[in-house]
């Protein structure tokens, strides 16, 4: 019989032990909704979003302020550091008090038991009390005393919709940190004891009395002296509700979507963020006078990759459409902001050399007729100068040479996430704003380039010599204040580029130094245009204002890698056998694949620099030193060329009131000023021109062949389509 009893007891004991081992959930507060809390690089609160249940409940903290710990243990559980989760002394004391009082006076709950109750949220009954005692012992076996205190502090109610000490400090004190006063620590210690009946909004006198009694106990236990205790008792009771900080609200909202209910550590520098927000708000107010209502900016640390400042839209509190739009992550027309990337990619893959001449002439690419901002033409312009001056036509020619699909693929690999369409849908307009990008992506792309150049990361733009030439060309862009960094020692050298979208809807400016990348967008979130909106005059000044908030930096070291090549001084291409003037330059590794100079020719024993007719016409205007050979050889496509329209052009013209079609002005340039040109449309003679080769032709709908023949028999033909 005794043996059987012992067996039963052993089985029961084993069952209880097993139950004890598995009774506590692995995640004690699983399913508890938390606020999204976003902090800066130093842990300073940037902003927060309320939990899904409407409570301000910050994600659990791993520690509690020392004064609060002392006050809490003294008030709630003096034997906390010594008992195994349940205090027999407290239970005995509670029984005596409850019997004498004739009702429940004390519950004898330890802090560990209260953690269990907070996690279970069950109705208070004797059975639940016993369950809490059982689970509390298991809690003590799994967690340290400090961890249990942190769990309690993170989930205790503090009145209203405030849960947890961290949330309470921000809502009631307007700050966080370990520098609680004794009065504040005591208040927070007694609040969870009965937050529904005694709180900061009602029965404040009872709350004050509880706080002061605790302060006196802490004095008696030697935690503070008499003077400190008196000062703490005289300290007014906290009670005012403070608004939470609201820095970079768009970033906080983004984090709320991507890291909902979590504590998010960012690289934001709160000092820089606050100063930048003030400056951006003033800038936006000034821009509003010109109908420009929205302004976004980002500052990245190149070396760490961290976002130091983020403003999705300045003056978010304004009651206007678009104020809450996070422009920094919204796709917008790029304007010219991609041109440096094309220049770098073309250098890197040997499509051009730094100063290769690019055409800058009137042209039409299958109905697409790009124009420069000043509506002028240079005839031919070095590639680096085309970037510096942001000329549209040369960059379109470069994109056609490099390949739209090839360039779009590089952009995607670099991190431009908004290129969703097929390359052919963008066409050559890709380089002029025919695609969309967001400020966030572009700033990261340029930061990755600067980081990769310094050996700190990777980027598809990996050839350091190509990147160097890109940065040097960007550093030559004229500043909004017209000041030259070479002549003013206080100015930092910045590689920067602007962009302005079609219709004056988007203005961009991105600047690069070895340490920082600053990006700015200006315009209207609803897409309305603003006359006078340009990247150089609108976004550029704001960008330099933000740079002025950053520490001064040096400049990139010249690359050691690359290869030396001999180039033609006049054309910028690899020097050919007929190039008389040559230069040695450091070029990217792929420079050996670049084109050889096509424009030096030997004529009558002399070497001449001879551009095609249309390029020559405009090139001579800006280059008086350009000299024509005594007589150009009439090679096919060399003696003359159509200025407008171009081969393959698609044209349209609305009929006049009388049903007739308006004339299409066709223009041709010739290498000889005295040449006569005979015009034919679909093999029918339509006229003759001399000196100025322009005709006005009435062209019916359909596909047509336009032919020009000069008096020496040279011929030029194009095909056009009339809609």
Question: CATH superfamily of the domain at 8-234, please?
Answer: Biosynthetic peptidoglycan transglycosylase-like
**Coarse morphology:** elongated
- The end-to-end span amounts to 109 Å
What percent strand?
15-25%
Describe this structure in words.
With 723 residues, this protein is of the alpha+beta class. Among the domains are: 227 residues, Biosynthetic peptidoglycan transglycosylase-like (Penicillin binding protein transpeptidase fold, Orthogonal Bundle), CATH 1.10.3810; 60 residues, no CATH class; 83 residues, Immunoglobulins (Immunoglobulin-like). Helices cover 34% and strands 18% of the residues. The protein is built from 21 helices and 26 strands. Helix 2 crosses helix 9, helix 4 crosses helix 5 and helix 13 packs across helix 15. The radius of gyration is 38 Å and the shape is elongated. The relative contact order is 0.07. The model has no long low-confidence stretch (mean pLDDT 88).
Give a quick summary of the entry:
This protein has 723 residues and is α+β, with helices and mostly antiparallel strands.
